[in-house]
Amino acid sequence: MNDNTLFARIDRIAGLAWGVHRPFREYIHRLADGHVAVHDGAQMLESGETLFPLDVESAAPRELPFAGSLEFRGHQGMMAVTVAHPRLQREGERWWLTIADPFEPGARMSIVEVVFQDDATGITRLTESGTDLFMGNYTDSTVFDPIRIVWKEKDAHK
User: Fold this and answer.
1) pLDDT digits over 77-100, tens only?
2) Domain boundaries, the chain
3) For range 150-156, the mean pLDDT
4) What pTM does this model have?
5) HSE value, Cβ hemisphere, 13 Å, CA-based, for 155
6) Residues 139, 121, 140, CA angle at the centre, nearest 5°?
7) Are 54 and 15 in contact (CB under 8 A)?
């Protein structure tokens, strides 16, 4: 997908839906103290995905910012993974999903590379920096859940 396909229609984008990684979600749900929560406008969908609404006011060339955060916790607080304020960012011909870096305030962390299949769906693979977010439990290039651009006109009923 090129910039024109996505950015020319920014007013028609409702948000970004992403389930992160199904095996990880299932693991959290099996924990006695496992907890998943959304904040700042993000919503849990029946599909297991989290919907992060488009943050139109923060949009910039070659990036689409989304609002909200998704938090996974377990092991008496020893495990905490937060996906906050995701952005789709384009560098050259490649797309990345970045988040607010939980280890370096004010910085961004690229967690997955995105390869778009069409104007709505992208396959994701964990980046080297993304492995840190998951405490090294997944290797670089592990396939994560696909992302989905939620279009207002196509997905209003979902």
Assistant:
1) 889 999 999 999 999 889 999 999
2) 3-150
3) 77
4) 0.91
5) 17
6) 10
7) yes
